[in-house]
Amino acid sequence: MTGAFPRFIVFVEIPRGFDPFWMPMGSFGEDLRTERLSRGVALEDITAVTKISQRHLVALEEDKYRQLPGGILSKGIVRGYVGALGLDERDWTERFVLAYASSGQVLDDDRSWMAFASNVGKARIQKREAAEMRLRWLGAVLLVIAASAGIFLTVRYFGVRAGWWTTLLPLENHLVSMVERLTSGVQAVANHAVTWWKS
After folding, report:
1. Contact (CB, 8 A) for 32 and 83
2. Maximal CA-CA distance, the chain
3. Which residues make Cβ contacts (< 8 Å) with residue 167, sequence separation at least 6?
4. How far apart are CA 139 and CA 143, in angstroms?
5. d(Cα 29, Cα 19) in Å, to the nearest integer?
6. Residue pLDDT, tens place only, 143-163
7. Which of 29, 104, 108, 188 is buried most, with the most CB atoms less than 10 Å from its CB?
């Protein structure tokens, strides 16, 4: 056994989503340019199809992200470019976002754009929650009104059957007597004023 090498067994764990046939060769722009050239497509052809300025396409291939318009427009340029090549738009857009964030070329304008986009989402959620809360309160108020009307009609029904509820409202007799007393009091004051005036 002299000259024999020790044998080892090596276990390698392959991560999920690993594609052994595709490995990134360089930066995002280099990979994009390689895909374009392998398909034999010129930048002028992509510009003609997508109406994206050729200087933006060149900036994308050269990883010069500061020359792109920024925000969601940059993602639109990437989608148009890879769509014209027939590549997976979602995959390449995600790769662009990662490359852009790791490049250190993120502009303050883009940060504010990202904050704006997240705030729009939060505002929509808050509006929806506020509308749901208003509907809940409206439902509660309508339920209280319906319950009150149900109780009123039930008491009135049994009151009419028992004979102690003779009018539409039980206080109607009290209101009539109060109005009669008020009018008689006004007449008494008027009579007293007339006698005082004559004297």
Report:
1. no
2. 151
3. 173
4. 6
5. 20
6. 999 999 999 888 888 887 887
7. 29
Contacts of 33 (CB under 8 A, 6+ apart): 61
| Stretch among 1-5, 153-157, 190-194 having the lowest mean pLDDT | 1-5
**Amino acid identity, position 60:** L
Q: Which domains are seen in the chain, by residue range?
A: 28-106 (1.10.260.40)
pTM given for the model: 0.43
DSSP label at residue 18: -
3-state secondary structure of 133: helix
Dihedral angle at the C-alpha atoms of 72, 76, 78, 79, nearest 10 degrees?
130
How far apart CA 84 and CA 80 sit, in angstroms, is 6
Is residue 59 within 8 A of residue 68, CB to CB? The reply is yes
Given a cut of 50, is residue 127 above it in pLDDT?
A: yes
